[in-house]
Specification:
This protein is mainly α. It has two domains: 1-33; 35-198. The protein is built from seven helices and two strands. The protein has a two-stranded antiparallel sheet with strand order 1-2. Mean pLDDT is 83; it is low at 29-33.
Length: 201
């Protein structure tokens, strides 16, 4: 038999209220321990700019110009992401810098640094065909590593990037450009919309 608590708005079943309270506590603890400062809206903008960059890159006649387009896009993406994260933290009154955020960045940073160094090595040895797959694979690795301290959907996005990177490295050369656009463009937009809807923007 259910226990009832009567209020002005009608009876409230105590077990149901207890379950609601437990769910609220669980969600609060998840937000407290997971880095939720990633802006889904920012990821959407990054994805849209990456699609423009993908179109511009394939118009180039030399690998150096192709690389310049994508490095410019990388700088733009960092700026867009940072700006939208600041706006999200202010709107939700969340701390932009916390212990969880520090762990996220310390996990995210090393694979990204490895990507920068390996890109320079591959460019020096004129192994341009390996760069798209390398970028997708190591960016995905960085997202998975950082996503350990974030919400569950972030590592899922990282694994998707890693899969595209593997396909780019093992598949025909003609797959590289579409896979880069699919990853940095499509995946950012798709997961950005999900994060924006479920984690406050």
């Amino acid at each position: 038999m259910k226990q009832k608590l009567h209020t002005d708005s009608g009876p409230i079943f105590l077990p149901e209220r207890a379950m609601e309270n437990l769910q609220f506590i669980r969600q609060t603890m998840e937000r407290a321990t997971a880095y939720t400062g990633i802006s889904g809206t920012g990821l959407v903008w990054v994805g849209l700019s990456a699609l423009v960059a993908a179109w511009a890159a394939v118009q180039q006649n030399s690998p150096a110009h192709w690389l310049f387009v994508w490095l410019t896009e990388a700088a733009l993406s960092i700026g867009l992401s940072g700006l939208m994260m600041v706006k999200k933290s202010r709107r939700l009154q969340l701390p932009l810098w916390s212990e969880t955020a520090r762990r996220f960045l310390l996990s995210f940073g090393p694979p990204m640094l490895a990507g920068v160094l390996l890109t320079a090595v591959l460019y020096q040895h004129q192994l341009f065909d390996l760069i798209p797959g390398l970028w997708l694979l190591l960016y995905g690795t960085a997202v998975v590593a950082g996503g350990t301290y974030s919400v569950k959907v972030v590592p899922v996005m990282g694994f998707c990037f890693m899969l595209l990177g593997l396909l780019a490295l093992l598949g025909p050369l003609s797959w590289s450009q579409p896979l880069v656009a699919t990853g940095f463009g499509g995946l950012h937009i798709l997961f950005g919309l999900w994060i924006a809807r479920h984690y406050g923007g």
